[in-house]
Amino acid sequence: MFAKLIGVCATIFIIGKFAGIGGEQIKYFTDIAKITLTQHEVNSIAHQIYGMTIVDGRIPDKSSEEWAAYIRANMKADIPGRDPAKDYWDEFYKVNEVDTVPGLSGAGFIVKSFGPDAQEDTEDDITSGFEYHE
After folding, report:
1. Tell me: the pLDDT tens digits for 45-55?
2. Of 8, 45, 75, 97, which one has the greatest count of Cβ atoms within 10 A?
């Protein structure tokens, strides 16, 4: 999947240069590829956490650094040498216990990337998570 998206980005860049597409348009298309890859990663990380760390109906209480170490130990990066604990904007993923769909669901957890703007709780945040079930 990753190789195909890199190929698409490279093609967009090359065609864009010949067609006169500006840097903003190329950044937009590159961000689309990064968003897609990041959504895949947050889904994979959430599945890993749900399947391997739920103890007594909850995720373990870990610091941001401990979650980063857990992700590094359990997830493989798509690009050799890339830190799997970081999103494609080079920011660490965040793991939190939350009401997964406020007002509509029960307690659970989410894995979050702050997305292209690197700002928490904005429209471009990328999340995945699970509700706890007994």
Report:
1. 999 998 887 77
2. 45
pTM above 0.90, yes or no: no
- C-alpha angle with apex 92: 133 to 49, nearest 5 degrees? 25
DSSP 8-class letter at 7: H
Say how many Å lie between the first and final Cα of the chain, rounded.
35
pLDDT per residue as tens digits for the range 91-110: 999 999 887 566 666 788 99
44 contacts 76 by C-beta, under 8 angstroms: no
Work out the number of other CB atoms within 10 angstroms of the CB of residue 14.
10
Other CB atoms within a 10 A radius of the CB of residue 29 amount to 16
